[in-house]
Design the sequence.
């Protein structure tokens, strides 16, 4: 507990040094003042995570995108931040940030203490943090590498390595014993996991019917008022420019035996 208090005090001190001028900032509860935030966005893509987080927290933000025009939205991002144009790109005060997970952790830890993440000392916290990072580090990474490979050549057997089915199975197993990816309560880990788990089924990387716990969890997150507000603002015309689903994914079942690296 002492460590937690010290950490929070440290974060608060850091934040007050880095905070935008008081006039431009909005005070958020007991957290540090929130600098002006602009989210550069592509409809139906990972930038929805930051919009959804802000809606859950009731925090102000500006959303930049060209409605119904993914290339036009990408051009806005490139004009603003040409070096690594990705969605989300977020203007946080005077700083330009990418990586949805890092942006979410920053906003929560600095400006929304105690919200949308389990207490640091709880047994839920390690799981929460694991899923916050698994979402991009393992799940999205393996889904998109399988998608690219299987688009070129349909798979005849499952990979010897941890593949799309294995990473989604891991999420399904966790949801057999936990209501949410943060454990007992909805958290930012659910926001992080929503995009890759949607990709897994919509792009036909896995067989949807094999993952009933994931399907039930999706219904629950999509029923949240903040999720619906995010959809209305960030995906006003529904999904646009969706990638083509795979004609065929790897046959499900045990992975092919062999060496791992
Ligand atoms: N790990 C990054 C991934 C960001 C990312 O790749 N976003 C996609 C949209 S979902 C993008 O901007 N793609 C454009 C490109 O790669 O050129 C995050 O979580 O923010």
Sequence:
């Amino acid at each position: 507990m002492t460590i937690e208090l010290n950490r929070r005090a440290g974060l608060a001190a850091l934040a007050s040094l880095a905070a935008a001028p008081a006039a431009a900032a909005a005070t958020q509860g007991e957290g540090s003042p929130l600098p002006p935030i602009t989210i550069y966005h592509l409809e139906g893509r990972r930038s929805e995570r930051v919009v959804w987080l802000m809606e859950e927290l009731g925090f102000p933000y500006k959303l930049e995108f060209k409605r119904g025009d993914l290339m036009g939205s990408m051009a806005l991002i490139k004009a603003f931040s040409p070096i690594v144009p990705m969605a989300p790109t977020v203007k946080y005060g005077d700083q330009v940030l990418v990586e949805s997970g890092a942006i979410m952790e920053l906003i929560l830890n600095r400006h929304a203490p105690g919200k949308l993440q389990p207490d640091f000392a709880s047994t839920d916290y390690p799981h929460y943090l694991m899923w916050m990072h698994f979402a991009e580090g393992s799940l999205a990474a393996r889904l998109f590498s399988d998608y690219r490979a299987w688009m070129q050549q349909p798979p005849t057997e499952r990979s010897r390595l941890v593949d799309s089915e294995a990473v989604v199975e891991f999420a399904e197993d966790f949801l057999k014993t936990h209501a949410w990816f943060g454990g007992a309560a909805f958290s930012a880990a659910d926001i992080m996991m929503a995009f890759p788990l949607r990709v897994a089924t919509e792009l036909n990387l896995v067989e949807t019917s094999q993952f009933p716990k994931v399907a039930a969890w999706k219904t629950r997150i999509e029923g949240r008022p903040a999720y619906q507000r995010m959809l209305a603002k960030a995906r006003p015309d529904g999904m646009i420019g969706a990638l083509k689903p795979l004609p065929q994914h790897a046959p499900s079942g045990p992975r092919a035996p062999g060496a791992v690296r």
Remarks:
- The mean pLDDT is 89.
